[in-house]
Amino acid sequence: MDARLLWRVALTFTFFLLSLGVVTWRQSRAFEANQALDQLRRQVSVAQAERIELERDIQVRSSMTHIVGAAEGLGMVRPSGQEMVVLGIEDKP
C-alpha cells in the first residue's frame, strides 16, 4: 500500500471515530437533560396532587357540618331564636 493511501485511511478512520464520539457525547447529554426534565415533571405532578388534596381538605374543614361538630366539641351550643341578634349596617350621612 502506498503511504499516502494508508495515511488517508487512518485519517478517515480517526475522523469517523471522533465523529462517533461527539455524537455519543451529545446523545448522553440529551439523555441526562431528558431525565432531569422527567424528574421535574414528576415533582410538579406531586405538587399539584398535594395542592388538590389541600383544597379538598379546606373545603371539608370549612363545611358547616365540620364547623358545627368542632364547635360542639368545644362545648358551644346553637343559639335559640331569642339569642340571635342580627346586626345591620347604619347609613352615615
SSE blueprint and pairings:
Layout: H1 3-61, H2 64-73
Descriptive tags:
93 residues, mainly alpha, 2 helices, rod-shaped
What does this structure look like?
By secondary structure, the protein is mostly helical. It has one domain (3-73). The protein contains two helices and no strands. The mean pLDDT is 91.
Share in helix: over 70%
Order of helices and strands: HH
In DSSP terms (H or I, runs of 4 or more residues), the helix count works out at 2
Described by the principal axes of the CA atoms, the overall outline is rod-shaped
Q: C-alpha Rg, in Å?
A: 37 Å
Mean pLDDT: 91
Structural category is mainly alpha
What is the rounded distance between the termini? Answer: 112 Å
How many strands appear in the DSSP assignment?
0
Low-confidence stretches: none
Give a short summary of the structure:
With 93 residues, the protein is mainly α. Helices cover 74% and strands 0% of the residues.
